Amino acid sequence: MIYLISNTAFNDESVEQISLCRIKFNKFDIDLSAFNALIVTSKNSINALKFNSIALTDILVFAIGRVTALACKEFGFTQIYEAKNSHGDEFGAEILNSLRDKKVLFIKAKETVSNLDIYFSQNGIDITVVDGYENLILNPKDIKKPEPNSTIIFTSPMNTRAFIQNFGWDKSYQAVAIGKATAAALSSYCDNIIVSNTQNLKSCIELAKNISLSS
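User: That's the sequence. What structure does it adopt?
Assistant: Structure tokens below.
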């Protein structure tokens, strides 16, 4: 059986989805016209703008991943740079020089793994950081622990933490991680982690299906 640990819905009858986190959006007020560039590493950053009814100013946006870039476009941004690297550290290095001499806004989760804000600050970027949202771990009582020998897809370090907190770990599980940070969060429990080459749900699920067929 394949399990997807994510609170982002994905329609596939062959995959059982378990939601163990929820997003809480924080209140803030920001004037986008005061900045030259915006960094977003999740579509939830754009959802945080919507939640707070922040008026659009079409500034340059640096986005991680196709889903995030599409969310930026849907909000109304047209100057969107979609990063070649979807891993946090590589993303930071990729866009660093493009941020120089710009006043930059970074809307992020309250808790992150990559510490991009510190990296940019240490490299002389004029950056304002807003904790636009946070991930809260759920403890549902009606969800059963995945059966042994399942392939389990983890979509973030927080979802990994939520899974371990709710179910612990079974050594028979095969883990698929959406990225390097998620794999690192799993490394204390599992040594057979396969990281998806592309950081999106569709690629992770295709990878999990191929693993299940070959096992």
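The CA atoms of residues 53 and 212 lie 44 Å apart.
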